[in-house]
Design a protein that fits this description.
This protein is α+β, with helices and mostly antiparallel strands. It has one domain (47-175): minor pseudopilin epsh domain (minor pseudopilin epsh fold), CATH 3.55.40.10. 36% of the residues lie in helices and 28% in strands. The chain has helices spanning 2-13, 18-68, and strands at residues 73-79, 82-88, 102-108, 113-115, 119-122, 128-129, 137-142, 149-154, 161-166, 174-175. The protein has a 5-stranded antiparallel β-sheet, with helices on one face. It has a 5-stranded antiparallel β-sheet with strand order 4-7-8-9-10, with helices on one face. The longest helix has 51 residues, at 18-68. It is elongated. The model has no long low-confidence stretch (mean pLDDT 76).
C-alpha cells in the first residue's frame, strides 16, 4: 500500500517539461496551418461556382425571354463587379440604342474577377449581337492569376454555350459539370 502511495506522489509531483509542452504546441500549429490553408481553398470554389451560375443564368434566361417577347430587347452589362440584366420595350439595333433600359435583375459578384464583354445584347431571334459575326464570346471567371477558373463560351448565332474549368493557369481547360 505504501509503495502505491509513493508512486502516486511521484506522479502527482511530476508535471510536463517545457520540451513536452513545446512539442504539443508545435503539433497543434502544424495541424491548424494545414486545416486553414485547405479551408481557404474550399471557400474559393463556392464563390467561383456562384459567379459562374449567375452569369449563365442571366445569359440563358435573357435569351429565353427575348424569344418569348419579340418586341423587347435585353442587354447584359458587366461593370465594377456587378452583373445587370436590363430590358427595353422596343427593338434596338445595338446595345447603345436610344431609350431607357430598365433593370430586371442585378447580381454582385463578390471576390471574383470576371473578364468578358461589358455589354451583351440579344436580337429578337435570340442571337447575340456581336461585333464579329459567328465569333465566340467568352467570359473568364477567376479569383487570381494562377488559381482555379471558369470559362463560359457563347456562340452568337446558334445560342449554344459551353462551360469549362481549369485548376490553375498552367492546367488545360476541361468541360465543367
Amino acid at each position: 500500500m505504501k509503495k502505491q502511495q509513493k508512486i502516486e506522489q511521484v506522479i502527482a509531483q511530476r508535471g510536463f517539461t517545457l520540451l513536452e509542452v513545446l512539442v504539443v504546441i508545435g503539433v497543434i500549429a502544424i495541424f491548424s496551418s494545414v486545416f486553414f490553408s485547405n479551408w481557404a481553398n474550399l471557400q474559393t470554389r463556392p464563390n467561383l461556382d456562384s459567379a459562374m451560375r449567375q452569369i449563365e443564368d442571366v445569359v440563358l434566361s435573357s435569351r429565353t425571354d427575348v424569344l418569348a417577347l419579340t418586341n423587347s430587347s435585353y442587354r447584359i452589362n458587366l461593370a465594377n463587379g456587378v452583373l445587370t440584366l436590363s430590358q427595353q420595350a422596343a427593338l434596338v439595333a445595338a446595345c447603345s440604342g436610344a431609350g431607357a433600359w430598365v433593370t430586371v435583375r442585378s447580381y454582385t459578384l463578390n471576390g471574383v474577377t470576371v473578364v468578358g464583354p461589358q455589354d451583351l445584347c440579344f436580337n429578337s431571334d435570340g442571337s447575340i449581337l456581336s461585333g464579329v459575326p459567328n465569333a465566340p464570346i467568352q467570359y473568364l471567371i477567376t479569383r487570381g492569376a494562377n488559381e482555379r477558373a471558369f470559362r463560359l463560351t457563347l456562340w452568337p448565332t446558334s445560342g449554344a454555350w459551353q462551360r469549362e474549368e481549369r485548376a490553375n493557369a498552367s492546367s488545360n481547360w476541361v468541360l465543367a459539370r
